[in-house]
Design a protein that fits this description.
This protein is α/β, with parallel strands linked by helices and 414 residues long. It is built from 15 helices and 8 strands. The strands form 2 sheets. It has a 6-stranded parallel beta sheet. A two-stranded parallel ribbon has the order 7-8. The longest helix has 24 residues, at 188-211. The chain is globular.
Length: 414
C-alpha cells in the first residue's frame, strides 16, 4: 500500500476512535529498553496525552483496526447502517505505524479498538495479532491498551491480556433497558461475563506473580470500561449506581463517562441534542467521591434532584452537604477523618494536613485557611477554636452564596 493510502486510512480510523474516552494509561508495569534490548518504555515522563478541541482524550496512537462493523448500535458512527467512509488496517500495518510513530517521538504507546468485521472471533484474533507482533517481533515495551470484544471466545480475550497493559470492555449504557433498545446486537449478561473472566484472570496472574517470579503478567494496568451519558433516559443516579456496582463486582480501575455526541446520519431514536458537558464532569466528581472519599452510591444519589440528576451549578459533595445540613458543622479539632472528607472544599490532601496539624496544636480558623484552597466554601460547615458558623449553615440562601458565579467569557481576552 502507498503511504498516501495508509495516511488516508489513518485519518478515517483515528477519527472513528475519538468517541472512546477510556484510553488512560495509569497503573501499568514499569518496563524500559535501557539494557539495549527491545524498544519503547512506560517510564520516564509517562504516557503522552493529547486532547481534541472538544476535550476528549486522544492520547497514544488511538485508532481502530477497522470501522467496518456487522453490528447496528444506534449511537455508533460506525454501525453497519451508517453512511460513512470505511477503512481497514492489517495487523502488520498497525504494528508498523506504532513503531514508526514511536521512533518519531509522536507517541508512547497504542490504544487499539475495532468494529466487528466478519465475526467477533476473527476481529479479536486480528487485534491480538497486532499486539503479538509489537511484543514479540519488535520487542516493543511501551504501553498497549486493547479494547476487547465480549462476544469473542474467552481464550482470545485471555491472550489479549497477556500482551496488553490494560484491557477494557465497554458496558456502553448504564441500564439493560437502554442497551437492549440502542444496541440490539449486544447482551448485558455477556458483557458482564467477559468482565468477570478478565477480573478473575487479573487476580490469578497477580497471585502467580507473588509466588513465581517469572509468571506471565496479565493486564497489569487492570481493566476499565465506558458508559455513554445522555443517549438514553438513564438518570445520574442510575449511572452512579451502575458504576459503583462495576467497581465492586469486577475491581475495575476506572469507569469513564462519555457525553453522547450527535453523529452524522444519526438514528431517529437518539436525542437531537447532546447533554451539557458539565454533566459528564459532575459524574466524574461523583465517581471520585465513591472511590476516594468514602461515599456510597446511595448517598451520592441522595444529592440528586427529583429526576435523579445531579445539579449542574454545584459539585455533588456540596449538593449532598446542603441536603444533609444536620451533619454539620464539624469540629476540625475532633471530627474523624471520614467525616472531614464530607466537608465541601476539603480534599484528601487538606484533610491529611488538618489531621497532622491538630496533633500538635488546637486549630484556629486562620490555620484552616493556610491548609485549604477555599476557606469561603469551608467556613459554613466547620468549627474551630475561634469560629462557629452559628446560623450560617442554616441560611436559606447558602447555596447561592457558595455556587460559582457565572462568568461571560471573552473571545479575545488576553
Amino acid at each position: 500500500m502507498s503511504s498516501s493510502s495508509i495516511m488516508d486510512r489513518l485519518a478515517i480510523l483515528a477519527d472513528a476512535a475519538k468517541y472512546d474516552a477510556s484510553c488512560a494509561s495509569s497503573g501499568t508495569a514499569r518496563r524500559n529498553s535501557l539494557g539495549g534490548k527491545g524498544i519503547g518504555s512506560t517510564e520516564g515522563m509517562g504516557i503522552c496525552h493529547a486532547y481534541a478541541p472538544d476535550g476528549r482524550c486522544i492520547s497514544l496512537l488511538k485508532i481502530l483496526l477497522t470501522n467496518h462493523c456487522i453490528f447496528d448500535c444506534h449511537y455508533c458512527v460506525n454501525r453497519k447502517s451508517s453512511n460513512t467512509r470505511r477503512a481497514r488496517f492489517t495487523p502488520q500495518e498497525v504494528a508498523d505505524l506504532t513503531i514508526s510513530f514511536y521512533r518519531r517521538n509522536y507517541i508512547e504507546g497504542l490504544f487499539l479498538s475495532s468494529g466487528i468485521v466478519k465475526s467477533s472471533n476473527h476481529t479479536m484474533e486480528q487485534m491480538v495479532e497486532c499486539a503479538r507482533i509489537l511484543r514479540e517481533e519488535h520487542e516493543f515495551r511501551g504501553y498497549i491498551h486493547l479494547k476487547t470484544i465480549p462476544e469473542a471466545d474467552a481464550e482470545l480475550v485471555h491472550r489479549a491480556g497477556l500482551f496488553a497493559d490494560r484491557v477494557s470492555i465497554n458496558v456502553e449504557l448504564p441500564t439493560d433497558r437502554g442497551l437492549a433498545r440502542l444496541a440490539p446486537d449486544k447482551d448485558a449478561r455477556q458483557i458482564e461475563g467477559a468482565m468477570n473472566r478478565t477480573s478473575t484472570d487479573i487476580a490469578a496472574a497477580r497471585d502467580s506473580r507473588r509466588r513465581f517470579r517469572h509468571a506471565p503478567r496479565f493486564a497489569p494496568a487492570g481493566q476499565s470500561t465506558q458508559m455513554i451519558v445522555g443517549a438514553d433516559r438513564a438518570s445520574d443516579a442510575d449511572i452512579v449506581r451502575r458504576a459503583s456496582g462495576l467497581y465492586t463486582q469486577f475491581g475495575l480501575r476506572r469507569v469513564y463517562y462519555s457525553a453522547f455526541s450527535p453523529i452524522p446520519d444519526a438514528s431517529a431514536v437518539l436525542p437531537l441534542k447532546r447533554p451539557p458537558l458539565v454533566r459528564e464532569h459532575r459524574l466524574y466528581q461523583s465517581d471520585w467521591l465513591i472511590r476516594f472519599y468514602g461515599f456510597r452510591a446511595a448517598e451520592v444519589a441522595e444529592a440528586t434532584d427529583d429526576k435523579g440528576n445531579l445539579p449542574l451549578d454545584i459539585d455533588p459533595k456540596l449538593a449532598w452537604a446542603l441536603k444533609f445540613r444536620e451533619t454539620f458543622p464539624l469540629d476540625v479539632n475532633r471530627a474523624p477523618r471520614e467525616l472531614l472528607y464530607r466537608v465541601p472544599g476539603l480534599g484528601v490532601t487538606a484533610v491529611d494536613r488538618i489531621v497532622a496539624a491538630r496533633r500538635h496544636r488546637t486549630l484556629r480558623l486562620e490555620d484552616v485557611a493556610r491548609l485549604t484552597v477555599s476557606l469561603a466554601k469551608v467556613r459554613p460547615f466547620i468549627c474551630t477554636a475561634d469560629w462557629r458558623p452559628t446560623r450560617l449553615t442554616d441560611r436559606a440562601d447558602l447555596r447561592s452564596l457558595l455556587a460559582p458565579r457565572a462568568e461571560q467569557l471573552e473571545l479575545f481576552a488576553a
